[in-house]
Amino acid sequence: MSDHHTRNPFTAEESPAVGVTIENLNKSFGSLTVLKDVSLQIRPGEIFVLMGPSGSGKSVLLKHIVGLEAPTSGHVSVGTLDASDPETREDVRMALVFQAGALFNSLSVYDNLALYLREHRLADEAGIREKVMGALQILSLEGAAQKLPAELSGGMRKRVAIARALVMEPQLLLYDEPTSELDPVMAATISEIIASLRHEYHVTSLVVSHDRDLALNIADRVGILMGGELLTVATPAELRQNTDPRIADFLNPSIDLGNPRFKQLETAS
Ligand SMILES: Nc1ncnc2c1ncn2[C@@H]1O[C@H](COP(=O)(O)OP(=O)(O)OP(=O)(O)O)[C@@H](O)[C@H]1O
Ligand SMILES: [Mg+2]
């Protein structure tokens, strides 16, 4: 039976998910080596969460996939195409959700979403309206269409950034820290949205995040990058069992209240 009435303007059939293959990727900036022999395969349609401490090279790795950085050695491909070839971005629809949203402050939410479709002449105004309002509805933002980014909360801006990525009908959706700076409830909502988008659109999702709850709840697989090295790639269940102290300490950091510095503070007050 056709589900014509519930069918969304974003059609998964027309945008098959693409995978990413990273082979022996090394990246240095001058004498600083940031990525060390990273090999990784992200499967079409999966949610892959890349975790790791601040400065471990997560954003640099993401930039290789969207072609903003080129490998010092090694190879990155999106589907079958070379990620560092500018034409790849023409052939594969990739959307990157930036940490701070990267919205145009002078444009309304509606116009921020419509911009890409207008620039690429992908639809007439009626078609644009359908796609934009469809994306806003998915993210519970219908009421915000005419607002300016400055009039939104941080969580709303994050959702607008995701909605803007959705109107591109991406085959590959990349998120850089989608839940940072959000309260735990909003962070969980964003995690649910990322998970539901995969189910509805069969998009491949790569999420760079420090958010342990997000990783353990929505990832198919999690990669942990430390000091530019990929320590492990594992399912959330495998990760919970992992006994490598570097991974356990990263996932379950403890605050040492017995630290003498805390004692000094106590007695000083
Ligand atoms: N264009 C650049 N030139 C020189 N060094 C860079 C450049 N981009 C990143 N780096 C360095 O690469 C390292 C990794 O940076 P990256 O932004 O990938 O970290 P990250 O894992 O995303 O950290 P965070 O969790 O804080 O976002 C850092 O030491 C950073 O200073
Ligand atoms: Mg980063």
Write the SSE topology.
Layout (H helix, E strand, L loop, with lengths): L19 E10 L2 E11 L4 E5 L6 H8 L7 E6 L2 E2 L3 H6 L2 E4 L11 H11 L5 H14 L15 H13 L5 E5 L7 H18 L2 E5 L3 H7 L2 E6 L2 E6 L1 H6 L3 H7 L8 H9 L1
Parallel strand pairs: 3-8, 3-9, 6-7, 7-8
Antiparallel strand pairs: 1-2, 1-4, 4-5, 9-10
Helix pairs in contact: 3-4, 3-5, 4-5, 6-7
Bound molecules: adenosine-5'-triphosphate (ATP) and magnesium ion.
Task: Explain this structure.
The structure is a single chain. With about 270 residues, this protein is an alpha/beta fold. It contains 10 helices and 10 strands. The strands form 2 sheets. A 6-stranded mixed β-sheet has the order 6-7-8-3-9-10, with helices on both faces. The chain has a 4-stranded antiparallel β-sheet with strand order 2-1-4-5, covered by helices on one side. A hairpin with a 2-residue loop joins strand 4 and strand 5. The longest helix is centred in the last third of the chain and has 18 residues, at about 185-200. Bound molecules: adenosine-5'-triphosphate and magnesium ion. Adenosine-5'-triphosphate binds near residues 29, 57, 59 and 60.
Average residue pLDDT: 87
What is the helix content?
25-40%
> What shape does the CA trace take?
globular
Ions, cofactors and other ligands present here are:
adenosine-5'-triphosphate, magnesium ion
Which residues sit in consecutive blocks of at least 5 with pLDDT less than 50? 1-9
Number of helices: 10
CATH topology title of the largest domain? Rossmann fold
Measure the end-to-end span. 71 Å
CATH superfamily of the largest domain: P-loop containing nucleotide triphosphate hydrolases
* Strand coverage percent: 15-25%
What are the secondary-structure elements, in order, as H or E?
EEEHEEHEHHHEHEHEEHHH
Counting helices, strands and paired strands, the structural category is alpha/beta
Structure summary, number of beta strands? 10
